[in-house]
């Protein structure tokens, strides 16, 4: 079934309690026709497993990669994606929207 | 995020209580405010506005940008009537992330075989509603056509803050229903909350089409229309 916020946040808690490195990504701002609303979550573990979405699948790969660094450093960071972004061709939003994603470590 | 904060957030969600998570995006400083503690909070006004809109977003307070993650309880649907329409409605609602509870004291109707993966309560509404009380994040749908079953639940829904109330039946059936509700002391403003005839007017005929029309109306009540007329 499609994962809801409830599943995602419960999963974040379960993964962290099981001793896995965990990061939580949240859409904090959108411009234009962004595919997922502000507040949408994606949870990622140290091995790159993830649940949820912050876009329609366009930038998840990049967020998962950055999440690895966030877990390793233990510090949050804010990412921006969109057509104006230099990496647009690789991970840009094909819908033409722009999104800002906050990625934070979950500290056990 | 501190795991304790996440734990509290998840347990409040499980108890169907709203919370707002406050994050200062620059420093990562964070705290969680429960619905019950909201009024006394230093950011009460901003929190209240955000919670009422049901949407997460950024607010500026004291020159700092705070991101407010609104965690409202997941919306759900309570149905009276383990009938053909509910059988179609349940799996469709699941795809929409809407939890469904079906109440029907008629044990011939309320069988797990007819309703796999659905919370099914083969009890009278008065009893069943003890375990699944109505709240502002609940939609109520009356589908039995039987006043003995529908009416007590409908009355409870009207006394609650349910975000949607719909009742199946022709205009004539609904007319009689309104008479009974008036006799029970419900005023015009109360009964106006009932969507009847139930569902968006898409000319639905089959049980699945009626279920679709009902779910469309529930989503509309939840989200509100967004497109402007051309």
Automatic annotation (TrEMBL), chain A:
This is XdhC and CoxI family protein. Residues 15-82 form the XdhC- CoxI domain. It holds the Pfam family XdhC_CoxI. Coiled coil: none annotated. It comes from the Bacteria. InterPro entries: MoCofactor_Util/Proc, XdhC_CoxI.
Automatic annotation (TrEMBL), chain B:
It comes from the Bacteria. It holds the Pfam family XdhC_C. Residues 78-218 form the XdhC Rossmann domain. Gene3D superfamilies: NAD(P)-binding Rossmann-like Domain. This is Predicted sulfurylase large subunit, molybdopterin cytosine dinucleotide biosynthesis.
